[in-house]
C-alpha cells in the first residue's frame, strides 16, 4: 500500500495511491498518516480498504510529507563505502548518528530554499525508514518487524555549517525545506528486501548519484536495532539511512546548489521527488 498526505502545507489530508497511480482520499478511515495509524494492526485494517473505490483527488493536488507529526528524524552518516572514500574519512566501526530538525521536513515537490548566509548547499538521496511500532532494544532479527514502511528522503545539507566552525552536523542539516520526504510511504509488505533497491539523484538532468541500498555498510535491520539501544523509537519516527557517492562536496572542484537548479531523485519502488531551488 502506498500512503500519501495531500493538500496545503499544514493542512494535509491522508490518502492512498490507487491502481492507476492516482490519489484517493482516506480521511473517512484514518485522521492522518502518522502515529498509531502506522502500527501493524492499523495498517492491516487499511489493507482491507478498497482504495479504487475511495473518493478521487485532483491530479494537480500538492503532495505533502508522506508522514505527519514526525517525532524524531534520525539520520545516519557515512553509511556507503564509496561515499566514505569520497569524503576521505575512515570507515566507521559503528553507525554515525545525528538528528535532523523535524521543522526541516517538507513535501517531495516543495521548493528547496537556500537560507540566508548559506554557501554550500548539497544534495543526498537516501532510503527513509518509517517506524511503526514502539521500538526499544530490538534485536536485528526482529528489527524489520518494527518498520511500517519506506520512503524517499533528500537529506539536504549546508556543508559549511556542517563541517566548519564547531563542526556540528545538525546545524548543516536542519534548515527549513532541508528534509523532503515522500512522495509516499510504501508499506513494509511491498518491499521484499530493503537492501535491494536502486537509488539515484540528478541535478538539472545530470546524473549525480546512482547506487543500490545493497552498498550500505550497515543495513536497515542493523540500524533500527542499533538506534533502539540509545533511544526509544515511536510510530512515525523516520530514519534516513545514509547516502551513496556523488554528492556535490565530493566533486573536484565541489559543486553546490544554486537558485534555479532542479533536483530530481528517487528510490526503486518508492517514487520520485522534484525540487526547484529558490
Strand content: 25-35%
What's the order of the H and E elements? EEEHEHEEEEHEEHHEEEEHEEE
Distance between the termini: 33 Å
| Corresponding CATH architecture | Alpha-Beta Complex
**CATH topology (level 3) name:** Fumarylacetoacetate hydrolase, domain 2
Which properties best describe this structure?
single chain, alpha+beta, Fumarylacetoacetate hydrolase, domain 2, 9-stranded mixed sheet, 4-stranded antiparallel sheet
Description:
The protein is α+β, with helices and mostly antiparallel strands and 278 residues long. It is globular, with a radius of gyration of 18 Å. A nine-stranded mixed β-sheet has the order 3-2-1-12-9-8-15-4-5. Strands 14-13-16-17 form a four-stranded antiparallel β-sheet, with no helix packed on it. A two-stranded parallel sheet has the order 6-11. 14% of the residues lie in helices and 27% in strands. It has a single domain, classed as Fumarylacetoacetate hydrolase, domain 2, CATH 3.90.850. It has helices spanning 40-47, 81-87, 140-143, 159-163, 169-173, 220-228, and strands spanning 2-6, 13-17, 23-25, 73-77, 96-99, 105-106, 121-122, 125-131, 147-154, 157-158, 179-180, 185-187, 198-203, 206-212, 238-240, 262-267, 271-276. The two termini are 33 Å apart. The mean pLDDT is 97.
Amino acid at each position: 500500500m502506498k500512503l500519501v498526505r495531500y493538500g496545503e502545507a499544514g493542512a494535509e489530508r491522508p490518502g492512498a495511491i490507487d491502481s492507476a497511480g492516482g490519489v484517493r482520499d482516506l480521511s473517512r478511515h484514518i485522521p492522518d498518516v502518522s502515529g498509531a495509524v502506522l502500527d501493524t494492526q492499523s495498517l492491516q485494517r487499511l489493507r482491507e480498504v478498497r482504495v479504487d473505490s475511495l473518493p478521487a483527488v485532483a491530479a494537480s493536488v500538492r503532495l505533502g510529507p508522506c508522514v505527519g507529526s514526525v517525532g524524531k528524524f534520525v539520520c545516519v552518516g557515512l553509511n556507503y563505502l564509496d561515499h566514505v572514500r569520497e569524503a576521505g574519512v575512515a570507515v566507521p566501526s559503528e553507525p554515525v548518528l545525528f538528528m535532523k530538525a523535524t521543522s526541516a521536513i517538507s513535501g517531495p515537490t516543495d521548493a528547496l530554499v537556500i537560507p540566508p548566509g548559506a554557501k554550500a548547499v548539497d544534495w543526498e538521496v537516501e532510503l527513509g525508514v518509517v517506524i511503526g511500532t514502539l521500538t526499544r532494544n530490538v534485536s536485528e532479527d526482529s528489527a524489520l518487524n518494527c518498520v511500517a514502511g519506506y520512503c524517499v528522503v533528500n537529506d539536504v545539507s549546508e556543508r559549511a555549517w556542517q563541517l566548519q566552525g564547531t563542526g556540528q552536523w545538525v546545524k548543516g542539516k536542519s534548515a527549513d525545506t532541508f528534509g523532503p520526504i515522500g512522495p509516499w510511504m510504501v508499506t513494509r509488505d511491498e518491499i521484499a528486501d530493503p537492501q535491494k533497491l536502486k537509488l539515484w539523484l540528478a541535478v538539472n538532468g545530470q546524473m549525480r548519484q546512482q547506487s543500490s541500498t545493497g552498498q550500505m555498510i550497515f543495513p536497515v535491520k542493523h540500524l533500527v536495532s542499533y538506534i533502539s539501544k540509545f533511544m526509544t523509537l515511536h510510530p512515525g519516527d523516520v530514519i534516513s539511512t545514509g547516502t551513496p557517492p556523488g554528492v556535490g562536496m565530493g566533486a573536484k572542484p565541489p559543486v553546490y546548489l544554486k537558485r534555479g537548479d532542479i533536483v530530481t531523485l528517487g528510490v526503486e519502488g518508492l517514487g520520485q521527488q522534484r525540487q526547484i531551488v529558490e
